[in-house]
Amino acid sequence: MRLAERIHIVGSGSLGFDLTDPFDCHVYLLDGGEELALVDVGSGMGAEAILERVREDGFDPARIRHLILTHAHGDHAGGAARMRRLLGERPAVYISAETARYLREGDEEGTSITVAKTAGIYPPDYRYESCPVDVELVAGARVRVGELELSVLDTPGHCDGHVSLLLEHDGRRALFAGDVVFFGGKVMLQAIHDCRLDRLIASLRSLRGLGVDALLPGHMNVCLAGGQRHIERANEVLDRLLVPEQMVGAW
Asked: Which terminus of the chain faces fewer neighbouring Cβ atoms within 10 Å, N or C?
């Protein structure tokens, strides 16, 4: 489904548009011309459906050369190995340097899959597959996708190693925000080992004044114009020494 020039959404679960598997985050397709990229890949259980959505939007999945992950949680990165296999092991996999080891090792403790299963969030038989990592992302890095270029922003807080990706194209700015901030200025804090309020506050402060047109988060509504207002809303709440509203009240 086309969202904007060069940007499509090809996956989304129960906390979104129910396009693919219920456990999938929003999965975005970037059209760089001669090559394509996916920003986040979902849980893995909907990988085939995601590629079918790519085809329905008129693209050949064989052109996908990059799998760029905002963070290591299962709904965003758990499908990397399966997606890579379906694409003939061709795409390069990108994730932050801080959490690359979790993906390489299929670490269910480090990615909080273990506690999520205990809480009933993931099914007991879900497996977080290990996957090679080709590029370890750091703040300020740039990722080239054909004619497009993404800037890597360090935005931890929801979890360690979380990054956001800024696309500047044709005079517009789109922020692939992962789970750092959502429509309405909401956030997602969880009782897991690496969710840190102080780091989330610093990340939200760093996004203030960025001038984002499209805010493309990992779940729920997207915003295609005036996206910065949602980031500013979160910061206005912080200005009053309060914590922004949660994206979900309970699972």
From this structure: C
